[in-house]
Structure prediction request, 274 residues.
Amino acid sequence: MSELQGKAAIVTGSGRGIGRSIAIRLAKAGATVVVNDLDDEPAAETIDLIVNAGGRAIACNGDVAAPDFGERIVDAALDGLGGLDIIVNNAGYIWNTTIQRNTDEQWQAMLDVHATAPFRILRAASEHFRSTAKREIAEGKLVQRKVVNISSVSGVDGSATQVAYSAGKMAVVGMTKTLSKEWGRYGVNVNAVAFGFIETRLTQEFEGQPAEIEVHGRQFKVGFPSDMAKVKYEGISLGRAGRVEEAAGAVYLLCLPESDFITGQVLICDGGKI
Prediction:
């Protein structure tokens, strides 16, 4: 398949899980990809999977919430891939607790990774998008570019113990709708995908003690007790959690030429609510 042949894409948080599946899906369709992760090893694994399948990818690793990261990853795409046509703001993690236990540090961390980081990346990309579009329009060309911001049903509908995470994910929705209005004149489609219960290390089932992930040297408990997971499935029309490949498919839809007249929308990918 070559629907995205010649396109250059950024996918943050693509060393694992949903992000890895998105990067692989875009590469399978012909896009070259800037892969990103906090750690070098998982990013290298994603790149190997893409390259071994005949695609091309480069790494720009590090913390998406760092003040200089937006400029750095946009420059990586422009210098390393020769352009930038698709941005998928996917990187993130959860740090849950009830509001009375929610610290300022916790609140800010969730806003930084889920809202501020995408904002900085998109701000860094704006000059390229605008100047390139103006040149193409002067040449009589119509070229569409794509931004897909990753939100969550927790952002759209709220979720107990996720006040900071939900706030960050709803901020993404506001950013998406605003930029769709600002960038429509430049041929940039800006949409969001709000995920429900997708099978990743953040949502894994456990018996007894939960699993932990490390972010910035801090350990975070992740996953759901098996009995709670079963209750969650009962609220899903399809009766199960989504697979990472299915999550990637929702993003892929919004990167295709067939979505060229869709912008400012939030696609809910949750298996349907009962």
